[in-house]
Amino acid sequence: MSTLPRRAFLGLAATTVVAGCNDTRVPDASPVVAADSQPTTSPASTPKAKPVSSRPPAPSELGVVPVLMHHRMATSVSGEYDMTPAFFRAELERLYRENYFPIRTIDLVRRDLSAVPVGKTPVVLTFDDSTPGQFALDAAGRVVPDTAVGIMLAFQARHPDFPAVGSFYLNKSPFGLPASEVGRALKYLNDLGCELGNHTWDHPNLRQLGTAEAESEIGRLAAMISAAVPAASARTIALPLGVHPRDRRILAAGGRGSTAYKNEGVLLVGAGPCPSPYSKSFDPMAIPRIRCSSYQGGQGNLLMDYWLDKLARAPHLKFVAASNNGNVVVPKA
After folding, report:
1. pTM of the predicted model as reported, rounded to 2 decimal places
2. Fewer Cβ neighbours under 10 Å: the N or C end of the chain?
């Protein structure tokens, strides 16, 4: 393997950021989906353990990083974005077994992977729509066990080397809470080390809004987070429906006064792993994600399984952390 100063890679990445922030082309209204991820066999009711190579992958910090997209956590599955607690537990088990290590979107965007142990692959767990199944507190102030956060905390208790961190993309009335309880809930998540991200106020199709209205959607949600948790601020946004506003520049910054905002990263809906943050193809304003679901007995989950299976078969494609000495480690050609 060889090492190169990270500064050289960051210079290339900065060029990509500028291009992304100034792109004002109108995108397709529908999100991208993986064309080759259709099931070829009958889906199972829960994810099955996949065989993994016993040979540890060589460090490679130009490999890809999975950014996983979750929506509604519920025992009764009725839509393609739903996931049962059992599926989520199985997902965490697989990620742990295959040497992934959770980080937040903002860590990826800022290229701060210093927490990732040597030999591990970073993975970002994202949660859109702030639905009640993602996070809830009982009357005693304890996290409800079958919520996403409850499941992550229980998993961390069994595996302290797999931290319970994620990035939560909020709308108004997060987690179905009344306004009087929002502050306590968001502070709890922030204190856990989770990221509080922006998913707009009303979850609109931003392409259908004028510039001022789109900025208001983003700015009102950013202001809600700052008011609820003064120590926190939303610095990344997940696009509702995966659709860009007509002027993409307003995603980076906009609004005025109390609703002024800045974003360092933008999450898309589809449809594959993210390039290494040290790669010249990395664009923090267009981060792809992999959908996770247990719809129709696990069919939706094949999008996640498709990519994790591929990376398990070809571990040289993954980002594998080396040392934190300021250099990017890449395999020798």
Report:
1. 0.85
2. C
